[in-house]
Protein 1
Amino acid sequence: MKALVYHGAGKMSWEDKPKPSIQFATDAIVKISKTTICGTDLHIMKGDVPEVTDGRIIGHEGVGVIEEVGSAVSSFKKGDHVIISCITSCGKCGYCKKGMYSHCENGGWILGHLIDGTQAEYVRIPYADNSLFPIPAGADEEALVMLSDILPTGFECGVLNGQVKPGDTVAIVGAGPIGIATLLTAQFYTPAQIIMIDVDENRLNVTKTFGATSTINSQQSNVVEAVLSLTDGKGVDVAIEAVGIPATFELCEQIVTAGGHIANIGVHGKSVSLHLEDLWSKNITITTRLVDTVTTPMLFKTVQSGKLQPTHLITHHFKLDQIVEAYNVFANAAKEKALKVILTN
Amino acid sequence: MKALVYHGAGKMSWEDKPKPSIQFATDAIVKISKTTICGTDLHIMKGDVPEVTDGRIIGHEGVGVIEEVGSAVSSFKKGDHVIISCITSCGKCGYCKKGMYSHCENGGWILGHLIDGTQAEYVRIPYADNSLFPIPAGADEEALVMLSDILPTGFECGVLNGQVKPGDTVAIVGAGPIGIATLLTAQFYTPAQIIMIDVDENRLNVTKTFGATSTINSQQSNVVEAVLSLTDGKGVDVAIEAVGIPATFELCEQIVTAGGHIANIGVHGKSVSLHLEDLWSKNITITTRLVDTVTTPMLFKTVQSGKLQPTHLITHHFKLDQIVEAYNVFANAAKEKALKVILTN
Amino acid sequence: MKALVYHGAGKMSWEDKPKPSIQFATDAIVKISKTTICGTDLHIMKGDVPEVTDGRIIGHEGVGVIEEVGSAVSSFKKGDHVIISCITSCGKCGYCKKGMYSHCENGGWILGHLIDGTQAEYVRIPYADNSLFPIPAGADEEALVMLSDILPTGFECGVLNGQVKPGDTVAIVGAGPIGIATLLTAQFYTPAQIIMIDVDENRLNVTKTFGATSTINSQQSNVVEAVLSLTDGKGVDVAIEAVGIPATFELCEQIVTAGGHIANIGVHGKSVSLHLEDLWSKNITITTRLVDTVTTPMLFKTVQSGKLQPTHLITHHFKLDQIVEAYNVFANAAKEKALKVILTN
Amino acid sequence: MKALVYHGAGKMSWEDKPKPSIQFATDAIVKISKTTICGTDLHIMKGDVPEVTDGRIIGHEGVGVIEEVGSAVSSFKKGDHVIISCITSCGKCGYCKKGMYSHCENGGWILGHLIDGTQAEYVRIPYADNSLFPIPAGADEEALVMLSDILPTGFECGVLNGQVKPGDTVAIVGAGPIGIATLLTAQFYTPAQIIMIDVDENRLNVTKTFGATSTINSQQSNVVEAVLSLTDGKGVDVAIEAVGIPATFELCEQIVTAGGHIANIGVHGKSVSLHLEDLWSKNITITTRLVDTVTTPMLFKTVQSGKLQPTHLITHHFKLDQIVEAYNVFANAAKEKALKVILTN
């Protein structure tokens, strides 16, 4: 089969690889129908994720059709259409029993990381019963690609951890795909205000059509002043970090109100300054989280009922064998006005 | 009347001051029976709290007897015995209605800070109906002094915010009075292990008799290794910071397990390094809080039922007019083996 | 002044009464701008509420303008526009401190019940600082009448107690004003399905325009079968009782799924059969609640932000002195297609 | 092998049965070391549980040693010592993913009910990875038999569902084994009072040594008056029903305070009267639950740390082949002063 293979920092190729086969009784082999590219894949391609070694097939998102199942798989059979979760869950370790699949002792984030991933014609999915979700006939499969990672990530790490409530004021720092996934799912809880903060005017304009009540361009305004002005001088109830650098996290520390929440989504490469000299008495809560994908069944229901429109996130389409070109577009997201790309096999 | 008065950094005196009188219809005047000294009072005396100005009567803890009430006070009358809360609550602002009295728009921590306090023969208590708690006949009033500040602080900022649960492993960094108040109230939730960490061997030994299951002297051991060794290599479910310096907060970052909680109690004077490069994916929660004293009625019930023994915290007794000597003892707590001192009027 | 006065079962009149005056320092006198009639007022008029005695002015909802405040009132002054809460809260008893204002030891539901109410030109409001909410300039005051009682009732007793979550299936039994208030506020949490059940086809049709995803006419269908058919045979996650008779409560017992919630809003006059022989092993939760109005500030924010449209509930308008006629319309709600009426002073 | 076999109402025998064998790759065969008898087994023997058919081996509790595992079992191997959960969990259905194992689509309560159980020399355990818990070397295995059912039942259905909190007043109606399991685990949350209510003076006396603060003999006292007298006229915060008949459930309705919880544990055979005419406005919560055994790992930690002493529950010991005699003792629990019996293979 063909697959996108990582060959060290800056080197990838669409090349022949052996088709995967069942290795354990709990495995399934899935023929990919549609996949996409994650910001994390760009980090991998730059060489920032040293666990990914030469020869690894990249990708941890997608939908497909079951090709074959191991003898212990009971929930799926050949021909079933499925969503692939970015997180592999064994269903039996202590973390899985607590709903913290991200830290599964036998899985977690392994696809396109520690084992071969989804940017390929076929992929092997360990613990298939717990790591795949069924797609009923007639569903919009392209929309459901967004349930592999980006929507549960925005929802769990941003919205749930931030404890967004009706009437709240929310700021989301970063209007890239993950910030927009957060924006879409924050509206499940009917906050009064959602303020989007970014440097890219195009992305900010897009967010206005997706439910943002205000936008702040951090290159053109003093963000702290602008947020205070929008919130009667109080700051926001929930500040969500969706970038992953010290400046944006520390901005969240400055704009959160007493009693508020800072929910970190960003993947950080270095430490940040936590200003406890100001925050020790402000009754705030700060959370971090690697997505658990524990809310995927719930998100699926909101998509099926029309309450959530994941296709808002999709800007570009390619054939799977055009994936190298797709990476180029996605790597220049601001210039290309790209959010998520769909690659169809 | 006589009172302990602050006269600038390093200067205090026990001197004559006018007896306070009712200023608002919601005030009460309380004759102090017993009061104590807080670590915060030491900071004030060093000049570290610039809002406290020359001439201020210090102190925010104590029990006493109502001397006079304003016309709008309905829950108390002359002669009633009361606990004075360190936090003044108006009962009607948005923060009070949310149970976040620490940020009361008309109160908060003002006693011995922005208005005259309790280290005196009499004190004026604003919003008496919401800021005092009744003491029934026959109660141990000395024990109840510990409900003014230290027990709700350890319980709310440490135990409740840390979400201590049955079976948990808990580490408390700092075995001073506040760390011990946390130790006592953490046992309300029956954790499997409570590990106390400090530099003072005497204090660590004391904690063993109060429920600590292990102690670590951070001057004699590698604390991170010791904690991992006590927890099957996992780290603790809850790490509680009860010191207020960067080193102890950053220790909490190192010993907390995936999915765990860091609850800050300490008053910090500078920022700390938050190692998001490690923590972003560890699903942790960090909290800060100024005590709200919202749990005082509940803590009172646990004292009355004998489940909580606040007298464990009391090591020294003085007459109120010996307060300068008491400050000297409390300022040399390690040498004097002091936790909380009681001053009796 | 003029007021609507109860004179025993079936007898009311619009007549002269003395204008109320300040009785306690915490009182305010409010000139009514707009008021409305509650289903509970109909019960009172039938003589079903024996605590209401001859001579009582009825009514517990409304907006108005402060005419005078007692000396201890600090949050309001003459001329301020206010929402009157149906629940009077002293702000200082144990129940108020827990946010359970409905059981306030000095208040609770007393307006138009134990003391004179709001269907009058003026009303005295005890504990004004805690029982009134400010209306900013430019707000739609007619809409805000719905915040006195019906919206917090539907939201707190139905939606919050029912723990409605994104993706849930919800059934609301009763499509009267309170059922519709529940329907409007349930959407704060983005359930996948909201099934309205009633006997009145007109009301069911109205609910479709307000967010119901399905309706069931219980006179035309087997409701249990219809609900199971709409929910893949499982029943609903949340069943909300908004009628107050045994048949509707027992219907909720039949349609709730394992692990689900039954939230009672209805005022019941007799006991119901709780089928523990079926339910003991179904992991369900049943709640009752008298509205606490603790969410009024939050509901106000959702109205101000346009997320909640209370005017959906308003079908009829009268002048205040037409109130007897308004009662006739409201008492024949089905025939008159009436939900809430507005009476303007 | 030998096993206790049900042969219709009132008929059981200790007889030869084929030794069970692996039927599915996820099965394990466990050699029973110790088992016990549950109140539910008595119901089965009376013929009250029609799903149990002639020839069924009874029993759903026990500890043992792994004899053989299926090819898909990864957490256990031959020779491992294990606790058998009374609830079988597949780990992959929607209910299991929500932690509601009691309603597992492929398991739930099946042992000694729908499939052969543990009152035998060997038992087949489906979904072994999710339905067994490891016992480390040196643990008190007899104590751990109490983790199969009775302790998680008392804790989950009574204590957790009742939301017992520090300082609460709790009443437990029924001082049999399940009531005592509730009493032991309620103390995890340090309530101020635990009132035990029963008809058996011996059992009430036993509970005093296990942490009850008061006892009420319902044959000798007016229970409602006695509870009100013990709670300043308020009633209890949490009323836990551990009997399973209408009278005891309706007693809970009478003694629960406003804002309180009624947690049902009892297995009910008929409906009860729910007095909504009194309760509709009392802000109460009623829960039902079949034990999920989701807290077994946590309970295990409290046993290992010495915080929970399950051996308090054990009154009698027999050899496994004396089981018919043991049933006789257990069926006459009051006369025999029996709580739980241990049967050793």
Protein 2
Amino acid sequence: MATATYTSMRNVCMVFRIDINCDMGESFGAYVIGCDNEVIKHITSANIACGFHAGDPVVMRRTVRLVKANNVAGGAHPGFPDLLGFGRRDMNLTREEARNYMTYQVGALRALCDSEGIQLQHVKPHGALYNMAAEDPDLAGAIIESVKDFHQEPILLVLANSEMQKIAEEAGLKVAREAFADRAYNPNGTLVSRRVPGAVLRNVNQISDRVIKMAKESKAFSVDGKTVELGRVESICVHGDNPEAVNIASAIKTALVKEGVQVRPMGEFL
Amino acid sequence: MATATYTSMRNVCMVFRIDINCDMGESFGAYVIGCDNEVIKHITSANIACGFHAGDPVVMRRTVRLVKANNVAGGAHPGFPDLLGFGRRDMNLTREEARNYMTYQVGALRALCDSEGIQLQHVKPHGALYNMAAEDPDLAGAIIESVKDFHQEPILLVLANSEMQKIAEEAGLKVAREAFADRAYNPNGTLVSRRVPGAVLRNVNQISDRVIKMAKESKAFSVDGKTVELGRVESICVHGDNPEAVNIASAIKTALVKEGVQVRPMGEFL
Amino acid sequence: MATATYTSMRNVCMVFRIDINCDMGESFGAYVIGCDNEVIKHITSANIACGFHAGDPVVMRRTVRLVKANNVAGGAHPGFPDLLGFGRRDMNLTREEARNYMTYQVGALRALCDSEGIQLQHVKPHGALYNMAAEDPDLAGAIIESVKDFHQEPILLVLANSEMQKIAEEAGLKVAREAFADRAYNPNGTLVSRRVPGAVLRNVNQISDRVIKMAKESKAFSVDGKTVELGRVESICVHGDNPEAVNIASAIKTALVKEGVQVRPMGEFL
Amino acid sequence: MATATYTSMRNVCMVFRIDINCDMGESFGAYVIGCDNEVIKHITSANIACGFHAGDPVVMRRTVRLVKANNVAGGAHPGFPDLLGFGRRDMNLTREEARNYMTYQVGALRALCDSEGIQLQHVKPHGALYNMAAEDPDLAGAIIESVKDFHQEPILLVLANSEMQKIAEEAGLKVAREAFADRAYNPNGTLVSRRVPGAVLRNVNQISDRVIKMAKESKAFSVDGKTVELGRVESICVHGDNPEAVNIASAIKTALVKEGVQVRPMGEFL
């Protein structure tokens, strides 16, 4: 398999590359959320909200400019049409609805990127749309159709080891597989539900250690203390919604660089 | 002046060309408005609602497909973020808000056009946004900035004889000037307010006669019975929101063709 | 059991009473849906949309006035916050969200009823909220809490034979059980999914016959041709979203009256 | 005139009473705005957002509970249907729209107040609705109609010295006149536009001095240093959207109490 060979070659060369992605531009009108101006310094790819679950056209342009000014790559972060629920509540859309809601949002952001002279690097669905699609082939199919709606196809950021990943790869999309820096994994490689105590890690050193394992060994630690094979991971997802999260993002980047891992936008090595 | 020369040349050649535009795709979710499937047969350019004042992503794609299947040109019809008021209520946006709301909506539609393999021909602001911008240089400026946000600039459809027209021409935009088939004009060339009795014409023959005068002589009749110089007009706006309106659209096209006027999408002769 | 005794007594007296309910006021801004002015003549209780899935404050007041002018009883028809999906898409709200979304909407309508001098007779959740609550005890609990938020408790309209009915009765609410005039039933008394061919009946005579059976014998016909015990039914749900539906509503009322069934608002006999 | 007599009597008794009001409950879904838990300690009346410009049903109930737990009076703070603009952008609604948007929002909040066992003390329109109505008799009329929609009429909080005040008093409403603690006044008693430098005061001592003058002498200082007669003022508006604003609110209350002014909810002395 091409990927395996590629991985082996990379191990031989001892060149490790990883992207760090974070949700951004989730403010809305008078409402401010996230520490975008801080977290931008510690990431390589920004997932920019597109107005359905968060963000608005003014915030979107400002975020595109912020991304550009910091030499970070920008991607679209489309969500369910549920501002009230921040896109975190399951909704049962038809495939036609899901595809078009995606294309609408991504197209809106792409126009702002075009206008500011940056390229749309990737697409990462948000919240419940992301979680549902990770397991629902129909919704995954809608997302794939939407990515293909764009002639210059953006990279699709997917949960490493998920159904979504397999379906997207089979469909021939350019895919980046992501792992979560601060989330506990089940033994089968899925994420432990946020409702379970211990699902979200807080210890900076522990998180940094895990991220290095993800980047260099493609492994995560499961809640039962064993390691889980994630397969190759091209991006690490961090959070930036509070000062503590910004510190974690900063620590992760520092640790990766110290370990010799090249931290670069996914579009540069995919 | 270039335009005058061009007009003279055209008079010499006796070739008259005109576009007929109509608002479309204004349905929303379960709500249906307009007779799109009928009116599409009698027009050459469709102004497709973009989800703020009307329309939704699913309706937008269906409308793009309808436009393509009928060999009609498609344009964006962005409006104020006021679905409840159908974009017909004045809102005092900042210039930054207006520009970005426009670019967001036009970008979303352009993505759907790209995906379906048609070109985005033009942009026509909707309702209160259109009316306010016709007189407000700041809002007109925002609209112009938004059109320039697109590398392949769409044509901007403007009210013939308005401030908006002048400002857009000075800014170097490709502009199409439109006249209204079924609206009474004031002696100064502006539209009579809808609230005034007689502002909206209903007689098919009368409307057809006026449209021919607009297309061939660049003139409108004012409410006081005199003629008003509109300057060159490249497009006639018709309505399609009820069966009667569809009949009017049909009659206008038939009358124009009978008079030897070429009825074609504005993008083909601008 | 009180209900059984009551039913027996009624059989002895040979007095049959039934309410006919229909969704109304689902227009929104410039969007018109439903034939409210026609269907109002053939029903006794109107479920008035409250602005989340459909309806707006202006439409709501007009509908309250229409209800009053036609001596029909009015109730609240709250739905999910999903205008784009007309409240027909499942959403996984928390109990706290569901309760408060309900109370907000019902409170808004009650204020308009107060202002127009009519009483709020009942509450009937809409679409996906109704369907999900029929089976989900947690969501049913949220709805019950919301009804109890009102000192003068409105009647809760529930699907006859559902979990929702049991939970609401156990909670001590005043409940009206409804059956659907034009929907096929499964042998276990649930509704056949709309996606199954034959789920929605169209034959006026067939529908009228069924409704009489529902009103006088508390029975429905299942898709396999057998009868299904629904238990006592106090209201029949009809639709009014197209001219054919209005004819069905009219035929149902005429048939019931002809059979000697008293057709009256549920609040008059509950 | 009754009011004058009452004022004289109060001067004789040397009893000064004033209410302190502040906007609250303006968070929305995942978005948090305002320091409600802190500012609540320093005010006597809370203007609770009602879901159109800010707030949502869950936030509204939490705010009603917060108000109750702190023995503060609660009122409705309805705004334009413009979450994206936080209700601060002018919209030209019809009178029918304005009245019903108000009644809808106030009714929704009243239901939550009823449910939590507190009374709806007052209504204060928000942002652009408040500012436009202060000068527009038609919009003021819509607001008055809406207040009268409620049998137990809430107090209407109005800008002291405005057209709105006069119209509301003539209509027989119970009115509370408010002055702004931290805003500069024009010589004619209107507020200096926020766009003018110096329009918003920041010095705690200066603000406290002004408030005492407002409470005891019904006077404000104009930007030209002279005093402006405001007429009787029953409530002082403070802000609570940042820690500094909370400090100002705290200082005002302390200063008023120290001066012997009774700081109590307007409903207790109106």
Protein 3
Amino acid sequence: MKKLLGLLLIVILGISFCFGQTVTDPPDSQPAASNVRGARYPRITSDLRAIFQVKAPDAQKVQLQMGKVFDMVKGENGIWTYTTEPLVPGFHYYFLIIDGVTVSDPASESFFGWGKMSSGIEVPESGVSYYSLKNVPHGDVRQKWYFSSVTQAWRRCFVYCPPDYNNNLNKKYPVLYLQHGSGEDERGWSVQGKADIIMDNLIAEGKAVPMIIVMDQGYAIKHGAPAPVPGQQPAGPSAFEEVVIKDIIPFIDSNFRTLSDRDHRAMAGLSMGGMQTIQITMSNLDKFSHIGGFSGAGRFSGAGLDVNKDYNGVMADAAAFNKKVKLLWIGIGTAEPQNMYKAVNGFHLALTTAGIKHVYYESPGTDHEWLTWRRSLNEFAPLLFR
Amino acid sequence: MKKLLGLLLIVILGISFCFGQTVTDPPDSQPAASNVRGARYPRITSDLRAIFQVKAPDAQKVQLQMGKVFDMVKGENGIWTYTTEPLVPGFHYYFLIIDGVTVSDPASESFFGWGKMSSGIEVPESGVSYYSLKNVPHGDVRQKWYFSSVTQAWRRCFVYCPPDYNNNLNKKYPVLYLQHGSGEDERGWSVQGKADIIMDNLIAEGKAVPMIIVMDQGYAIKHGAPAPVPGQQPAGPSAFEEVVIKDIIPFIDSNFRTLSDRDHRAMAGLSMGGMQTIQITMSNLDKFSHIGGFSGAGRFSGAGLDVNKDYNGVMADAAAFNKKVKLLWIGIGTAEPQNMYKAVNGFHLALTTAGIKHVYYESPGTDHEWLTWRRSLNEFAPLLFR
């Protein structure tokens, strides 16, 4: 009977190995790390081209959407293929388009981005290991449910606890509230961003202070507010700021061993999350001392910063602001769309003109994508709570 | 500038609301709870039919795969629709087939099942709340990385810690190792299974002892063993048993406050995970005292159980076995495929004939699906560690 069981297990285990065909794979290439277990495609070549493959004998047109849309080419056995130009390392969202229908690739892990479960491809970065799993003490990422007084609904957050959190039971920790971008959610920073791995590595090297990181969802509709009409813009402003102040911070401070004064509380975010961060922290400087905007500080409108009026004038007295805010950190990728680059760089220039102390970082060669934000976290976190 | 920021946020927030069209939704229906944020389809009617919708003006054929394959019907504006018969409540995997290509639905959350990121639909169960979020103390689910000595690779597990784990810092807890089924992974029990919510509710009602639950991945290839050839069966047996004994249990016992004797260690699993559980626990009765097989105890081969030979004869002396094993629990859904039902029910009958004490449970009207396993956990967990 053991044999029967063994055979059956082998058959069942086979499910995970049935992607693609038993043809020869292109030499000098390997499956992307972001593939599901056992999937041979997409593959990455040694010069960082990605090869995509879809079996679709009956489809009229199969396309790859990754930034732009590329037509895949139909070959033998109805297998469509596309090989990209060499890619920038890091994480890129992508979709397949099957006869005009945009879908995610069953061979890829799914990542919540663009408001839906997207495919993603991880392109390896040679000589860089700050976001690689290493033999160092590891913290954990905890899924927590809490009831929001503002939305009158259950919400979920993920909380990174540093490696020594479970050993130093009398120690209290500073907290970074870290927000995702538009169309993403509370999973973004730990899944696409590898925030836990980045922090484990920084802490192991003594480069960052052990801290708690709270990753929540930047969307919230106040209870009683009109529900958004599908296909239309939401009727009212997001209630996220209220959720942060009234729900999330009190929940975290009462459920984790936090240092709960403003000196030990930071907020940062990427893109939309960066804009939310600036908005929320500037309105609540009694609660936050360290502030980070990754590809989304200020706004993308291009209008100038008026330090006397904007953010209720909290920057009007630069000396007072500089004393109060321990860290204001602004970052942008040099390959981001020009309007975004100009907005963030312009914010940096305006802050400089106004005498507002801040750190400005440019991520070389990266777009409005997760590698910019992994780098941003890796640069930002070491400066916190010093 | 605040206005500009507000407007921009509204535009960005709009991404999550752009699914579907501004047409009238069918009355007496609501979006499935398993949809991504803001998606109007699939919808569930009050008599539990599911309505699927895909915009695909250029596709020749659009189908729904949910158990069987159903042809969707093309209507105005290239929108394809399909309304099911009333569905059994619980969680059902499904896929869309666009001109012959099986893909997941961008409007649904993704769930790792069938060896890929699948779509899933949650059909509400009237009058039942044991897997609903309630206002009770909540534990958490922790993502942990560990390095396996057996596979020589990093592995990930999820660990449920009960609500009082962070308050009773001197308390130690019993541990249940809980496995997913074939084609699934370590995410299955907390995402599809809602194991954390079930446990929070059971513990709040005093029906289950607070316990730690470890959810790991039931696939493992021993370091140095030939890598599986894609499209073929793996060359050797799974090394999962070795990983459980040599890696997972020692990791959990040294990183969590566990009661580490056999009396306080249980293992259970569903389908393939149930078969693995029986195999592993019977070979390691010095380590496990409580055993559960959900839709997968014994094997699906139909061959009779020989208590004198099977499992190295551990059941040959029924009295000794009954004294040693504190709980042997077997469950199956009455609507599961006949071969599965017969195998598990046959195992139950054979155990009865052999005088082996066990609990046998049938989930009324449910198939080889997650509702059977949510119910199984809800029945099984209260019997543990008493």
